[in-house]
Structure formats: structure tokens, C-alpha cells
Amino acid sequence: MKKKNYLLFFCLPVVGFVVIFFAFSSLNRSYIKKKVEGLVEEQLRATAEILKVNFSHFLGEDYEADKVFDLYTNEENIYYMALFNESREILSWKSRFEGYLPISKESMQMQGSWIINSPAGKIFNSFSSFTLPEGETYYLYLGYSLNDLQEMMAHSRRNFYLIFGLIIVVGIVFSVGLYQLQIHYMDKKSELEEEKKEKERYREISALTSGVAHEIKNPLNSLSLLFELLTKKGPSSDSETIVSGRKEVAKISRIVDQFSSSLKPIELSKDAFPLEGEIKSVQESLKKIATEKGVDIQYLQDSSVTLFADRVLLSQAIHNIVKNAIEASEGGDVDITVKKVRKKVFISVKNSGRGMDEEEKTRVFEPFYSKKKGGMGIGLYLTKKIVEAHGGDLDLVSSAQNGTTFTIRIPGG
Amino acid sequence: MRKRTYIFSLWFLGVIAGLPFAQTPQHFYNIDSERQVEGTIQEIVMEPRYKDSAPFLVLILEEKGTHLVYNVEVSPAWFFEQDFHKGEGLTVIGSFYTTDGKKMNIIAREVRFKGETLVLRDKHGFPNWQGGQTGEKGRRRGKGIKKF
Closest chain B residue to A80 measured between Cα atoms? Predict the structure, then answer.
């Protein structure tokens, strides 16, 4: 499956959920709004009825309409009110806004209630009649502010958008997180599959090459014995050729031995030992080669480190790297640095050589890859195997200006 | 000129403080009685018009052709920024009503004057100086002015 498809796979459910939430919430809000508006209308109608009863009472007591209106001055939600006679002629009115009484002949004919929009917000209008006990009929026109209802709706809308926004943000974070996790899992899976295939291939090659090495070793032993016999009993005139032949046989034998050892699985025999001693012994053993190349081996250690590892194999690994560093140098220093960071030990070997090109950097740990004259390409391959067998890794940093640094990182210390 | 109008307003405030405001049952913006009048300014006065409200700018307008005289209620003096002068012509759209059976009055919704339309109320008569839902009085000043 392509990455784009994975993204869709994780995003679509979130998008679907958001759409459903939006649709559901919108329908719900619209239903609640309708219901609340209905309730408010009912309540306002009831209030209008109460007011009509009061008006009826006061007008029956010969109060002037203006005086009756004054009784409701403190009612903040009443924007305007007006009293009309039976012929629907205005008798008196009161409004919070100068001269604002938005009633027309048409709305008077309709009677009942309606809502209008004004710059002061929505206004609930009610126009209805009432009759005094004496039989006189009047009409009362009222305008109530619906600002409280609008505020409530605005509050609900704000909350809705807030929650909606939060859901989108959480959804995006969640789906991106899942997507990343899935990608990571898929990468790891394909990496493991690759590794498995590589191991399989390696096992096949190992079995084949071990067989070949074994088959070569037997005739080589016979050849070695033959040259030994010729050295002792052969004509003295051919002694130089015989020595040379013997050397070549020994060389082939050594190659086959190295070849066989590189194919064997590494078995560790661990014990605790001070690292400093091993490095000094490597330094000592390579002193001669270093002197020949005009290289000075420097050893820097910030604190003493005791490792629990296979002493012989680890020494061999360090030896290989230091030897490589010397051989790749044209004079200058080879610095060996040991550092302990948390629970890991870092052994770095740095030279000031010419550095490696990109191809060399990617292939340097491959078996039988070498650019050195007479090199077999086994050393760094074996070193990497030894370090990895200890649960560590071997890093390489190289540039033409700063030379090459190999770093062994192994747990412990 | 604005300063002169301001001093004039203060003087009028002093003069009219004791006068009763002129609200009658018909004195509201009746959307059924809208009409348009074009005429010449005869006089400019300020009068208390509504209870608990600032003095209003009222123009005495003589209609062109008919020579009928109208009392045109414009807006609270503080809201109106234009300068009117006697003899100037203007057109008013507003709600018409009479008092004492003969005095003709108009509550102005729009005033067209010197190529500008000054919108004072909305089509239902809601006064623009009340500011709308924000409750910030005077914020809408001049908003309705449009060139034509």
C-alpha cells in the first residue's frame, strides 16, 4: 500500500467523524434553537396576556394609558408598547428608541405575534386585543427584546465551534500520529525482512565457501608437505624457486584460513578487564608499522574503563581499526580516544589521512572489499561483526579535510 | 462653523430646558405614512421631542410648489454634523403626521442635501444614533451617508 493510501486510511475515519459530528451537532442545535424559540414565544405570549389583564384592570380603574406604561418603565426587555382603540387608532405609546414603533396596518390586521430584526437585535412583537368589563375593546402592541435568547444562541455557537476546532486538532494529531506509527512499523518490518533475506543468503554462501575452503585446504596441505620435502631433498639449483613456491603455498593457506574464520559465527567468551591495558597492548604491537609510516599513536582516556566483553575479540577489533588508520595515513597522528557516556563506551580512532570517497564509505564494511594493495577486505568486516556480537555498533565519519574516524560503541563500562 | 453650532446648541438647551417635550400619540415613526417632501429651509430650531432625550434638530421647511410648511424632525443635535442654512433646499423622506389637525410634521428617515443622502433611521424607523446591538451610541454616525 502506498504512503498516500495509508494517510487516507487514517485520515478518512477522522474526516468522517468530524463530518458526522458537524451534521449531528448542527441538526441538534437547530432543533434546540427551534424549541427554545418556541418556549420563549410561549412565555412572551403568556407575559402579554398578564399585561393585558393588568391593563384591563388599570384602564377599568380610569388610569391614563401613559401612567400604566410608566409602571413598566423598569422592564428592560420591553422595547416598546402601544395602546390602540377598537378602531385601531393609537391612543398612547412608549418606546426605548425615539419614535421607534415598527407596526403597520398590515401587521395590525394579522394580530398574533411575529419577530422582526432590528439594529438592537431580534424583537418579539405581539398585537392582540382585550376587552374591559364595561365592554370596551382595546389592542395592546408589545415589543420584547430577544437579546437574552440571542446571547444564549451565540454562546452555544461559540462552544460548538470551540469543540469542533478541538476535535479537528485532536483528530489531525491522532491520525498523523497513527500514520507515523504505521510507517515506522512498516519500515521496521521491511528492514527485518531484508535482514532475514541477507542472513539466509549469507548462510548459503557460508556453507558453500566453507565447503570450498575445506576442499582447497586438503590439497594445500599435501602441496605444503611436498615443498617441505623438496626443500630437504630437491636440487640446490632450484632451492630459490622451491622457497618461493613454498611461500606462495603458505600465502594461499593463510588466505583460506582467514576466509574460513570470517565465515564462522562469532562466539563470545566474556570476562571483565580494564580497557586501557588492551589498547596499550594494541599500541605496542603496532608501534613498528607506525614508525615506518611516520605516524604517532596518541591515546586519550578521560577515566579508566572496565569492560565485560570478549577480551581477545575486542582487542582484535581495536587492532584492526588502528592498523587501518595507520595504513591510511601519510604521517601525522592517529588518536585513540576512550569515553564513557552513561552506560556506553565509545572507542574512537581518528587519523588525518585523505578520507574516503562516498563509495568507499558505503562499502568499507563489506567482506572482501579493500582498496589497499594486498588487502583482503576482511579486517573491517570482522571488526563490525565482533562489535555487533557485543550488542554495539561501528560508525564511520570521513572527510577529505578531517580524515577518518571510526567509533566503536559498546554497552558496559 | 461647528463651534458656532455647538454654542448655538448650548443656548438652545438653556432656553428649552423648561419646555414640555412634544410627544403626542401620533408622534412615532409610522411606516404607513411615509412621504417625500422637497423644499427650502425657512428656519432651524432645536426642540425637546421625546421624554428623557436630548434636544432635536427641527427644520421648518417650505415645500416647493405647494408652499406648505412642514416641521421636519431630523435627529438629536449631537448626532448631526452637517450645517444647514436658511434658504437652502433639501429633500426629506419620512413619516408624516399632523398635530392640532393642521400642523404638518415629518419624522425624517433620509435627508438629501447638497448631493448627499443622510440616513437617520432604518426602514422601520429605528434611529441610527442608537447604535444598534452593541449599544454604543453614535457609532453609526455618518455610516449612512452616500453620494448620488
Answer: B28
- Is residue A135 pLDDT above 90, yes or no? no
* DSSP class of A223: H
Same domain, A66 and A41: yes
B85 touches chain A (CB under 8 A): no
Please indicate if any CB of chain A lies within 8 Å of the CB of B133.
yes
User: Where a domain ends, among A145, A173, A204?
Assistant: A145
CATH of the domain at B97: 2.40.50.140
Mean pLDDT of A223-241: 85
- ipTM computed for the complex: 0.76
CATH number for position A295: 3.30.565.10
Q: How far is A94 from chain B (nearest CA, A)?
A: 9
Beta-bridge mates of residue B40: B62, B89
Smallest Cα distance from B75 to chain A, Å: 9
Q: Which residues contact B116 (CB under 8 A, 6 or more apart)?
A: B82, B145, B146, B147, B148
Q: Is the pLDDT of residue B13 over 90?
A: no
pLDDT at B7: 42
Helix or strand holding residue A250 (H, E): helix A239-263
pLDDT in tens, A318-363: 999 999 999 888 888 999 999 988 889 999 999 988 888 888 888 8
Question: All 3 cell numbers of residue A289?
Answer: 608499522
Are residues B131 and A99, on separate chains, in Cβ contact within 8 Å? Answer: no
In a domain, A160, yes or no: no
- The radius of gyration of chain B from alpha carbons, rounded to an integer in Å, stands at 15
Rounded to the nearest 10 degrees, what angle do helices A379-389 and A239-263 cross at? Answer: 30
**What residue numbers bound the domain in which A222 lies?**
189-263
Only one residue has cell 424607523, namely B125
Q: What is residue B80's predicted lDDT score, i.e. its pLDDT?
A: 78
Between A377 and A380, residue with greater pLDDT: A380
Average pLDDT over residues B62-77: 93
CB contact under 8 A, B53 and A98: yes
Residues of chain A positioned with their CB less than 8 A from the CB of B137: none
Q: Which residue has the cell 594494541?
A: A282
- Tens digit of each residue's pLDDT (9 = 90 or more) over A34-82: 888 888 888 888 888 888 888 888 888 888 888 888 887 777 888 999 9
- Most A-contacting residue of B23, B27, B28, B31 (CB-CB within 10 A), to test interface: B28
Q: Is A90 on the interface with B (CB under 8 A)?
A: yes
